[in-house]
Amino acid sequence: MTTRSIFVAASMLLLGGCMVGPKYTKPTVPIVPVFKEGNGWKTASPNDQALRGDWWTMFGDPQLNVLETQVDTANQTLKAAEANYRAAREAIMLSRAQLKPTISTEPGIEAIHEAVGKTSTGQVVQAGPGSAVLPLDFNWEIDLWGRLRRGVTSAREQAQAGAADLENARLSLHAELAINYFELRSADAQIKLLAETIKAYTQALQLTEDRFEGGAAPQSDVTQARTQLETTRAQSVDVGVQRTQLEHAIAVLTGKPPSELNLEQSPLKSLPPPVPIALPSELLERRPDIASAERHVASANASIGIAMAAFYPTISLSGEAGLESAALTTLIQWPSRIWSLGAALVQTLYDAGRRRSMTDQAIATYDATVAAYRLSVLTAFQDVEDNLAALRVLEEEARIQATAVKSAERSLELANNRYVGGITTYLEVITAQSVALTNETTAVNLLSRRMTSSVALIKALGGGWDISSLPSATDLLAKTPPEPVPGDATKSSEKPKQ
CA-CA-CA-CA torsion for 288, 289, 292, 297, nearest 10 degrees? Predict the structure, then answer.
């Protein structure tokens, strides 16, 4: 083999290098064929469009639709998540830059004045003219063992995790808004119920006062009726406080000061829509939090390779070229040229176990991320199972409660008739009133719980997101990033001050 061939082969080795460290494989996770609580639920087909990104439209509430669209345009938490994602993208470019040479310059000019004098032989010493230099410095670390490339890989996978975190934040905020909205509408239903109850109790109080004045009832009946009325009014005020707080929370979620949002009362009436569920195996591709956890595992795997590369020598090339002269007038001349070129190999011979500890630490971190990934999968299964069970149980409970409400209303009607007929005391009426109000309130709360559980199920299923939406390596390196959250800093006229 000629010297030229050896040089070419060595250059290819240096430039190409190899990758030390484990090759990444996605960790295994426990998968079940079907959900335990999924009996009677429709399984979504691959072409099923019922669960889309704008899943809230399934509830058929125009006011909710308007509010949900404002989350993407104005929510500050979402803007922060989007900015964090953009920062993660830039970290890729920072890591990639380390693969390339660094070229710098440090031009300078120096004037030297020495005292004029004579030497011991009588020769006159003149002042020195100084010097001028225009250098270019070159430094390049050869990524022989893949340390820098592993860093790029880790940064890319962290950015993909950031993209998944952004989508998870978006899903969580939309779900939080929907839950607050349905709880607010439930409060409206309770306020309406209490208003009707207060009207009925006012009439009952008037009845007891008339009977007392006519000598047909004791004053205790009047006192009991008034107590019942005022207690119910207090309950109405308390529900009003809850409604106000929910309205304020919705305002913040939509990026508004609480004073700028006023939602008119509209009692909750609609039933939760049917939600098609995915197979457990498909859930892994539909939950952004699971995708984020898996990307963190991949990044941690790359970190092991980075730590292992420290056991191998580092090779770097350096050079300098430029011009240097004792006078500016002769600086840009061929004899003023300077240059140097060299290579250096650095190998740590002893570090008291530092590199071994760093590698073991990276392996432990990887094991922790694997455990977190598997836990996120198990938690996702639990979320779906919990909400499937909740919807099934609450639906059955609502049917039973509807019967209880009718029975309580009939009991109150009979108690009123018996009291008017002088057959029973007013205590029976109060008891029937309390039972009726409690059952009617329970029915309202059950509907609210069914609606919020439906939202929670949609969130547990990923809200229509799919892992194919994660940006690819090409997307992450694109000059123009994917469309950001509408209304963020990249689309506004606000720019950082220089």
Answer: -140
pLDDT of residue 35: 87
Cα 235 from Cα 191, distance rounded (Å)? 9
Q: Where are the beta strands (DSSP E) in 366-487?
A: none
For the purposes of burial, counting CB atoms within 10 Å of the CB of 7, is it exposed (0-12), middle (13-18) or buried (19 or more)? exposed
Closest by CA to 477, choosing from 91, 83, 82, 78, is 91
Contacts of 365 (CB under 8 A, 6+ apart): 300, 303
43, 278 Cβ separation under 8 angstroms: yes
Q: Where are the domains of the chain?
A: 19-99+153-312+356-476
Residue 43's pLDDT is: 56
Q: What letters, b where the CB count within 10 A reaches 16 and e where it falls short, cover 239-249?
A: beeebeebbbb
The span from the CA of 2 to the CA of 237, in Å, is 95
The pLDDT, as a whole number, for residue 107 is 85
Q: What is the pTM of this model?
A: 0.84
**What angle, 0 to 180 degrees and rounded to 10, lies between the N-to-C axes of helices 219-253 and 62-74?**
40
| 493/483 Cα distance (integer angstroms) | 17
Of 452, 446, 459, nearest to 383 by C-alpha is 459
Cα-based distances in Å from 65 to 68, 107, 217, 399, 467: 5, 62, 54, 29, 25
DSSP state of 278: P
Contact 226, 205 (CB under 8 A): yes
In the CATH scheme, what architecture does the domain 19-99+153-312+356-476 have? Answer: Up-down Bundle (1.20)
Task: Give CA–CA dist 210/174, Å, rounded.
Answer: 54
Count of positions (residues) in the chain: 498
3-state secondary structure of 322: strand
The whole-number mean pLDDT for each consecutive block of 10 residues of the chain, a chain of 498 residues, reads 45 60 91 80 52 87 96 93 93 90 84 57 57 83 88 93 95 96 97 96 93 90 94 95 97 95 93 87 91 95 93 89 72 76 88 93 96 96 94 95 96 93 90 95 96 95 90 81 47 43
Is residue 317 a contact partner of residue 140, using CB atoms and an 8 Å limit? yes
Residue 427, Cβ neighbours under 10 Å: how many? 13
First-to-last CA distance in the chain? 58
| pLDDT given at position 487 | 42
Who contacts 174 (Cβ-Cβ below 8 Å, separation ≥6)? 55, 56, 68, 71, 463
